[in-house]
Design brief:
This protein is mainly α and 220 residues long. It is built from eleven helices and no strands. It has one domain. Helix 3 crosses helix 5 and helix 3 crosses helix 10.
Length: 220
C-alpha cells in the first residue's frame, strides 16, 4: 500500500517530443487556423510577404514557449513592429537560395561537357544548402526579438552547420511541406487555406526549440 500510495502521489512526467507537440497543437488549433488565414491575407499585396512571414514566426514562437497567444493582436503587432527586419531576413534567405538553385542547375548541365563546371556547381550547392540549414535558425532568432545584426546572422549559420540534423528536419517541415502543398495545388487548396503555412512553421520551430531557448535570448 505504501508503494501504491507513493506512486499515486507522484506528479505525471511533463510531456516531451511528439506528445508535447500534439498537446500544443491541440491547445492552439484555433489560433493556428486564424494565423494561417492572417498570413494569406497579408501576403495578397505580394510586397508584404516578408513581414507577414516574420510575424507568423513570432506569434508561433509564443505557442512553442507555452505563452498566451492572441492571434489577431499579436500578429498585427509583430507585422507592424518587425517589418524592417523582415525584408533583410527575406533577402538573406530567399536570394541566396534562388541564386544557388539556379546556379547549381545551370552549372550541372554544363558539367556534362566540361568537368570544370563542377567547381562552380559545388559552390552554388554549398550556398543553397547552407542557407537552407541556417534560415530556420535565423527566423527563430529574429522571432525571439534579436536584431538583424552580423552576430545574429553568424549565430544562425553556426547553429545551422553545427546542428545539421535539427536544421534539416526544420527545413523539411517548413520548405518541404509548403512546396508539396503548392505543387499539388489545386488539390491541396483546402490544406493551404486552413493550415498549409502555419502548421509547418509551428513544427519547424518546435524542432529547434531547445536551441532557441539556449541562444534565442539577447542575454545568451
Amino acid at each position: 500500500m505504501f508503494f501504491n500510495q507513493h506512486f499515486q502521489d507522484e506528479e505525471p512526467l511533463p510531456a516531451s517530443g511528439s506528445r508535447l507537440f500534439f498537446r500544443i497543437l491541440g491547445q492552439e488549433a484555433p489560433a493556428v487556423l486564424k494565423l494561417n488565414l492572417l498570413f494569406l491575407l497579408c501576403c495578397l499585396p505580394v510586397v508584404t510577404i516578408p513581414p507577414a512571414l516574420l510575424a507568423l514566426w513570432q506569434v508561433e514562437r509564443r505557442m512553442v514557449e507555452d505563452r498566451v497567444v492572441r492571434s489577431w493582436r499579436h500578429y498585427w503587432d509583430a507585422f507592424r513592429q518587425s517589418w524592417k527586419r523582415s525584408y533583410g531576413a527575406f533577402a538573406l534567405t530567399a536570394l541566396p537560395m534562388a541564386a544557388g538553385s539556379y546556379g547549381a542547375w545551370f552549372y550541372l548541365r554544363l558539367a556534362e561537357a566540361n568537368p570544370l563546371c563542377y567547381v562552380p556547381f559545388m559552390f552554388c550547392a554549398v550556398v543553397l544548402f547552407g542557407t537552407l540549414l541556417s534560415s530556420s535558425y535565423l527566423y527563430g532568432l529574429l522571432a525571439a526579438d534579436r536584431p538583424l545584426t552580423k552576430e545574429t546572422i553568424l549565430l544562425a549559420v553556426k547553429l545551422g552547420l553545427g546542428k545539421p540534423l535539427r536544421a534539416i528536419l526544420a527545413a523539411l517541415s517548413w520548405y518541404g511541406a509548403t512546396a508539396v502543398g503548392i505543387l499539388w495545388f489545386p488539390l491541396s487548396g483546402l490544406w493551404l487555406l486552413l493550415a498549409g503555412f502555419s502548421l509547418p512553421c509551428l513544427l519547424s520551430q518546435f524542432l529547434i526549440r531547445d536551441f532557441l531557448k539556449r541562444f534565442g535570448s539577447l542575454d545568451s
